[in-house]
Amino acid sequence: MLIAVSISRSPIVDDLCAAVGSTPLVRLSRLFPRAEIRTEVLAKVESMNPGWSAKDRPAVSMLDDALNRGVLAPGGTVIESSSGNLGISLARACTLRNVHFVCVVDSRANRSTVAAIRALGARIEVVDQPDPATGDLLTARLARVRQLLEEIPGSVNLYQYGNPANARAHCDGTMREIAEATGGQLDVMVAACSTTGTIGGCQSYITEHGMQTELVAVDAVGSVLFGGTPGARLLPGMGAGFVTDLSREVRPDRVIRVSERQCIAGARLLAQREGILAGASTGGVVCATAQVLRERPHLSRLAVMVHDGGLPYLETVYDDDWVRENLGLTPEEIETTMDEIAGLPTNDGTDRD
């Protein structure tokens, strides 16, 4: 006798650009084991996008917007500054849209990320000296972008730092998906910032739909966003050395600044507790979330952004030798910070809070 079996299949899409979004929202039940924390913590795992990061969303949004408006045509060239993730996303999207891509990165970019951008057909330009006036590598990258725009006829810059299509991708996509999954019942949303497209898009959705959700922006120590003090930043992907155009429109309810040590410890804690291998900025989000929960352990529901995957960071954030040589931190010091974030007791039984 034949038995009919129903097999659930994923939808067929035309290309990987159409597969961006609809990432899972995962309950984190092991990250903060303290009994007094009653909050449901949910993670929006953007590393499940085809390009392994939340940058897939603005990459497709900005590129298609430029093509639809006629600013860019197939066969043209996009020149963009990136710390890495947007570079991967744009390299793929440009290949699928028959557009040439030149990616300007700096010396902090992970080697595997740069290799992936090049493998997807892009030309790489590496900036290894900071801007003389500001000492900032991001500013130097943007200066190189301007030079290349003059050298390459008909080239365009999507300018992720001020492009409304960047934030719109997270308003129409990321935050909408979170709101729909939670029925709009969300006390706090925690996300890291660099261009502030993610946090700005989340704010737009929250405001437009009357959600009573507090928005927490996580920024790096040394970033100038939201009134920060400029300083050296070794880890890529979070913070900025100048006030981005998009950030001028963003008013987070709270800004929490995190150190590189906290980012590394938070990322390792997430991997070891929840099996989510994420990048440095997500480690900062984990640390900031711990601070929020210590202060308000009886929140009903909180969501965090997992901005990207951790594979490109295996030789840096997850490598003890690299952390020791570049940040002067021992494995024991990182372990101590991991315990502090988790709120675990010390050997004498006292809390590390």
What do these coordinates show?
This protein is α/β, with parallel strands linked by helices. The chain is built from 10 helices and 10 strands. It has 2 domains: 16-53 and 164-343, 3-Layer(aba) Sandwich (Rossmann fold); 73-153, Rossmann fold.
Summarize the helices and strands and which ones pair or pack.
Blueprint: E1 25-27, E2 40-45, H1 56-69, E3 77-81, H2 85-96, E4 100-106, H3 111-119, E5 123-127, H4 137-151, E6 155-156, H5 164-182, E7 188-192, H6 197-208, E8 214-220, E9 254-258, H7 260-274, H8 280-295, E10 301-306, H9 320-327, H10 331-342
Helix pairs in contact: 1-2, 1-5, 2-3, 5-6, 7-8, 7-10
Short characterization:
The protein is of the alpha/beta class and 353 residues long. The chain is 37% helix and 14% strand.
Average pLDDT, to the nearest integer? 92
C-alpha Rg (nearest Å): 20 Å
Task: Summarize the helix and strand pattern as letters.
Answer: EEHEHEHEHEHEHEEHHEHH
Termini, distance in Å? 64 Å
Low-confidence stretches: 1-8, 345-353
Strand order of the largest sheet: 1-2-10-7-8-9
Q: Give the helix proportion (percent range).
A: 25-40%
- What fraction strand? 5-15%
Helical run tally: 10
Based on DSSP secondary structure assignment, what is the total number of beta strands?
10
CATH architecture descriptor text of the largest domain = 3-Layer(aba) Sandwich
**How would the global form be characterised?**
globular
**Structural domain count:** 2
Question: The CATH topology of the largest domain, please?
Answer: Rossmann fold
Domain Tryptophan synthase beta chain-like PALP: 19-302
Protein name: Pyridoxal-phosphate dependent enzyme
Cofactor: pyridoxal 5'-phosphate
Pfam families: PALP (PF00291)
